[in-house]
Design goal:
The complex is a heterodimer. Chain A is built from 24 helices and 17 strands. In chain A, the strands form three sheets. In chain A, strands 6, 7, 8, 9, 10, 11 and 12 form a seven-stranded mixed beta sheet that branches. Classes of the chains: A alpha/beta, B alpha/beta.
Chain lengths: 660, 270
């Protein structure tokens, strides 16, 4: 081979030297990945002699197992399609089995006078770089984790603060209603105003973190847009009147009464914008305009505009007003009793709607915020919406004969609910604890009970299940009131015989909706507890060993069809006999996986009959079996307990089925 | 769930419908790439069939916003997508061709709703990659975890992953883009979850439920799905035939497209 001519006459380089002594590795391979050439550098790295590799090994043989899979599924397909691959990190295996990381570049080359291709690859040892990379990624991961932790902390704290704050606010409101001298009244007003502002700040913080975590979802339900606007304006009117500002609305005549979308988010956006407008206006007016921009068969586009004659926003500040946590912004707004978060929440809520907020402003003359939202047309034929649509009419007629019991120990909540109920002309009584509720139910007939779950002495769950066991001519509908997450307490609700759940905080509409749902469905004769059924339930509870299982769910599901119930119970009973055999075999084989399989298999059956104790026992067995050092005696005693529980369930079910 | 309309489906799965024929042939790509995998294969079918190409959600140019880990935590979810595509496009008498993991996805789809399919082609199928009591899938569970580790380091281009990190702009992946490879772009997180699903799945018990004529195409040397696995699949699917072609590797649709096409044609004409 000729020496390559270089610009420097004294230095001669042969192509061979350039190939073999290069500071990076080279290998060449065929379409079947068989290596047909490699330079000395790479041979040295790999600790192989030339003869050991050439025409003997495939690229796969040099790769760690993970890289091998990656090579076949990602890397090689890519070369075939693209003709090259750059900068892929792979782990290469040395002859002694140890690994090192390389960065590999490959190029496809056509073999002269054939249809075949061969592949040239260069390899760079990146052991050092890899260390830095790991370091860098670890730091990044840690930083992200830290931010997440902070957000969670903020979230928790905000929740914790909200509870006592609600109490302060409530007491403040009650205090304001007592007779006070002017000085005291001033103090109470400050107290109320400050706690209101604080609550708003906390609520906004929570919303913001929810928005950031993407845990908000847009709902779609029919709502009366004019009603929403009216109640919104009504709630802000007091503030406007205090400041001597006129607050008025202009709603497009062509707007239908009902549209489908997320009313809560819309309410939140408008509350924020109107609240701000009132805050920054000292004289003149604040106006909310809603206009129909256009509509298709299924959708309509609305424009919302909030304008004021307030202080206005300087042009250079317009960009900043939507940023949360910006120090300057925060300071300014706090002086004005705001949180500085409202606009950024609006912006994010609108983004969820695929919309954005526009602002026009002139210092000294006022501001105008506007946005457009696409809503679905409310479809009359859709029965789901229809229910909501006709609530109002249905309610008036039905509520007059409804007797309702409110069980709530918090005087504020009690007061608020009472006000709503008086408004709707519903007959009701209130009690403050579970014991009193039980006594009231024994004395008087109620159709509906609103039951707070966190009560002193006897809580809402216990009170409800006790009521369910009282021999009544007609069992009431029990609706729980709670600030807990419904999913987290669903099982307890069902077990206590509670029909439905109203999440706190709730507005009059929420309460209205759920009440009318139940009143209507009861009057249609659905979802009722008949005398006979209830009695049956109680009897069974007493006769069958108390906690092993509970058939009330099944009875409810069977809906007065004894033949169905009997079939179901017999099937379940047979199922449990098989499970019991499976369990004995698992213990014999000393095999925890059989127990987990059994747990999995029986999920629905144990759920139907609520055999929670059995599930617990089985889980404990599984744990004991999994622990290889576990004393055989412990396993044996636990297994006996579990078998006994199986027996109790099987005999209990048999006994029950005979009576049907 | 609401059935998506045709346009949304086309957007979701980046569906391409081409060809002169009537009978639809749907190509489902495997793990590691997107519909580009079929680029050397599908042209042969254009004159006689209606060719349908698509990307699984999360791969290629599919609409990633449809992806959520909760839904796609099971191969059945991808199979349901194929059924949605067939129903949404009103396809009948469908020939379903699945490569690699999509052979199993095809299996799950066809078993769930056999009425709209007529024949199935599986290229390099494996119902279970992990060795389990006597069954030889080719890999141990540790091997698969090592793969996932490799994936962490990669995603087609070291620079694609590191450049944004180094530049401090993880929100702007385009900064690293031009340095790297242009085919088979996948969202790294989704690809990792898909790898998890693919390599830890076990669909052995579903094989006998497939009652349609099925062709299994296998190369003589495939490190991902070894010959024994293909033989197992052949044994378990009642109406199946196995063709071993003169090629190597896991992707004969790319490395030996002519043979792959010839085998499929032969099967369809039979």
């Amino acid at each position: 081979m000729d020496a390559e001519k270089t610009s420097n006459n004294r230095i001669h380089e042969s192509p061979e030297d350039l190939y073999h002594e290069a500071p990076c590795g080279y290998i060449s391979f065929t379409g079947d990945a068989v290596i047909y050439n490699a330079n000395k550098t790479v041979l040295k790295w790999l600790q192989y002699s030339r003869e050991e590799i050439i025409d003997k090994l495939r690229v796969h043989d040099l790769l760690s197992i993970g890289s091998k899979i990656y090579f076949d599924t990602n890397f090689f397909p890519l070369i075939l399609m693209q003709g090259y691959v750059n900068e892929v990190a792979l782990e290469i295996k040395r002859k002694d089995g140890s690994n090192f990381p390389v960065l590999i570049n490959v190029k496809k080359v056509k073999v002269k006078d054939t249809n075949e291709n061969c592949y040239w690859a260069s390899l760079f040892d990146i052991s050092d770089r890899k260390k830095y990379e790991r370091e860098l990624l670890t730091s990044k991961l840690k930083a992200e984790q830290d931010t997440k932790t902070k957000t969670e902390f903020l979230n928790t704290i905000s929740h914790e603060i909200r509870t006592p704050l609600n109490a302060i606010l409530g007491i403040g409101n009650l205090l304001a209603k007592t007779s006070l001298d002017p000085k005291q009244k001033e103090f109470v007003d400050i107290l109320r105003l400050s706690s209101e502002n604080l609550l708003m700040l906390v609520n906004n913080l929570l919303d913001l973190s929810k928005l950031e975590a993407n845990s908000f979802k847009l709902e779609e339900k029919a709502f009366a847009i004019r009603t929403l606007v009216n109640s919104l304006v009504h709630s802000l009117e007091i503030k406007a009147r205090e400041k001597n500002i006129e607050l008025y609305t202009e709603v497009d005549e062509n707007l239908p009464n009902y549209i489908a979308g997320d009313p809560i988010k819309l309410n939140q956006i408008l509350t924020n914008l109107l609240g701000n407008a009132i805050k920054f206006t000292t004289e003149g007016h604040v106006k909310l305009g809603i206009y129909l921009l256009g509509s298709s068969d299924t959708r309509l586009r609305l424009k919302f505009r909030v304008s004021d004659t307030g202080t206005g926003i300087p042009e250079d500040k317009l960009e900043n007003i939507f940023q949360e946590f910006s120090q300057a912004n925060f300071k300014v707004d706090l002086e004005k009793d705001g949180t500085g978060l409202g606009l950024s929440i609006c912006k994010k809520l609108l983004k969820m709607h695929g919309s954005e907020i526009k602002v026009k402003s002139e210092v000294g003359r006022g501001s105008e915020f506007s946005f457009e939202i696409d809503y679905k047309k409310f479809d009359q034929r859709n029965s789901k919406f229809q229910k909501v649509h006709h609530l109002k009419e249905k309610m008036g007629a039905n509520f007059s004969s409804t007797r309702l019991l409110v069980v709530e120990d918090n005087p504020i909540n009690n007061l608020v609910i009472s006000e709503y109920l008086k408004d709707w002309k519903i007959n009701f009584d209130t009690v403050e604890d579970g014991q009193a509720a039980i006594a009231a139910v024994r004395k008087k007939k109620y159709d509906v009970i609103l039951m707070d779950l966190h009560l002193p002495f006897i809580d809402g769950f216990e009170a409800s299940s006790t009521i369910r066991n009282i021999d009544l001519e007609k069992q009431p509908v029990i609706l729980a009131l709670s600030a807990s997450n419904k999913e987290s307490i669903q099982n307890r609700l069902t077990r206590a015989g509670i029909d439905d759940f109203i999440s706190k905080p709730f507005g009059p509409e929420d309460l209205h909706r759920i009440l009318s749902n139940y009143v209507v469905s009861r009057q249609r004769g659905k979802a009722n507890y008949t005398h006979q059924n209830t009695k049956e339930c109680v009897v069974n509870k007493e006769e069958v060993s108390n906690d092993s299982f509970d058939l009330s769910g099944l009875i409810k599901m069977a809906n007065n069809k004894p033949e169905f119930l009997k079939k179901f119970v017999l099937n379940t009973c047979t199922g449990f006999k098989t499970y019991s055999q499976d369990f004995k075999k698992a213990i014999q084989d000393n095999d925890p996986s059989q127990v987990s399989e059994l747990l999995h298999k029986s999920t629905m059956s144990v759920f139907y009959i609520k055999a929670d104790r059995l599930v617990k026992l089985l889980n404990e067995c599984k744990c004991l079996l999994e622990n290889e050092e576990e004393d055989y005696k412990n396993i044996k005693s636990q297994a006996e307990k579990t078998s006994a529980e199986f027996e109790r369930i099987i005999t209990g079910l048999e006994k029950f089925s005979r009576k049907l | 769930m609401n059935q998506l309309n045709r346009d949304s489906l086309i957007k979701r799965n980046n569906i391409n419908i081409i060809g002169e024929g009537k009978q639809p042939i749907v190509f489902a790509h495997g793990y590691g790439c997107d519909q580009n995998m079929w680029r050397f294969v599908y042209p042969a079918f254009l004159s006689d069939y209606k060719v349908v190409l698509f990307d699984h959600v999360g791969a290629g140019n599919s609409d990633g916003s449809y992806y959520n880990s909760g839904k796609y935590n099971d191969l059945q979810a991808f199979a349901d997508d194929i059924l949605e595509i067939c129903h949404g496009l009103e396809l009948k008498d469908v020939i379903l061709v699945g490569h690699s993991v999509s052979a199993m996805i095809a299996l799950l789809g066809v078993v769930k709703d056999p009425s709209i399919f007529s024949k199935v082609v599986m290229i390099g199928p494996s119902p279970c990659y992990i060795n389990k009591n006597g069954y030889k899938g080719g890999f141990s569970e540790e091997d698969i975890h090592e793969l996932l580790y490799t994936l962490d380091d990669n995603f087609l281009g070291w620079s694609a992953k590191m450049a944004p990190v180094i530049m401090g702009n993880p929100d702007r992946p385009e900064l690293g883009e031009e340095l790297t490879n242009s085919f088979c772009r996948t969202n790294p997180e989704i690809a990792k979850e898909f790898a998890h699903l693919t390599f830890l799945s076990d669909n052995r018990s579903d094989l006998p439920k497939l009652k349609l004529p099925t062709l299994i195409i296998q190369t003589k040397s495939d490190a991902i799905a070894p010959l024994e696995v293909a033989e197992f699949v052949h044994k378990e699917i009642p109406e199946s035939q196995l063709s071993i072609i003169e090629a190597t590797g896991h992707c004969p649709n790319l490395s030996a497209p002519e043979q792959t096409v010839a085998e499929i044609m032969k099967f369809l004409k039979s």
